[in-house]
Fold this protein.
Amino acid sequence: MKFFTKRADLPAETAARVPPGQYLTQKWPVLHYGPVPPFNPKTWDLRVFGNVENEFKLNWEEFQKLDQTTVTADMHCVTTWSRLDQHWEGIPFSKIIELAKPKADSKFVIAHSEYGFTANTPLEYCLRDDCLIALRANGEPLTAEHGSPARLVVPRLYAWKSAKWLRGIEFSDTDKPGFWERNGYHNTGDPWKEQRYWGDD
Ligand SMILES: Nc1nc2c(c(=O)[nH]1)N[C@H]1C(S)=C(S)[C@@H](COP(=O)(O)O)O[C@H]1N2
Ligand SMILES: [Mo]
């Protein structure tokens, strides 16, 4: 079987789910900049902070105990692969909103990951019910390469926004372009509008 399939070679209903310029992949590629960080459950925590009524920090034990949800969503990487029907399990982003109570003028979410990686996302995409902090993918705990123990998943934007090895969520009234956004990638990154690089509308 071929690993990458052009839209033109797909049945119409599958092709309709693959954004322009993307190829369907059956296997799940690993993509990131820099090394894979170790996970230590004794020292791991998630810090939620910024323009909110209630900043908080949860350790691994506390975080895992939050109510979980499942999401099935397609995944689109700007390097042109798309994977359909990824199955995610984890903490719905709405839980973070409920606990943190972002102030009314919060417009952006900045994900903070190990080694200083950040990714900015307009808050509206994180308010959709397909946004979550995933702990499991396709029936298994996240592997180290795919972001263990916890990663953000923002299915409606290119996958570089889905920060692996998540350690912090910041809410902000001003935008703060993240690692890829400062290095040539579009600030929003909607795959259906092909917002890949700086200068794409
Ligand atoms: N911490 C961190 N998360 C990251 C990245 C990164 O460089 N560092 N790269 C992003 C990119 S470019 C993509 S396409 C997806 C890929 O996720 P995957 O390796 O699970 O397929 O992770 C995103 N999350
Ligand atoms: Mo990517």
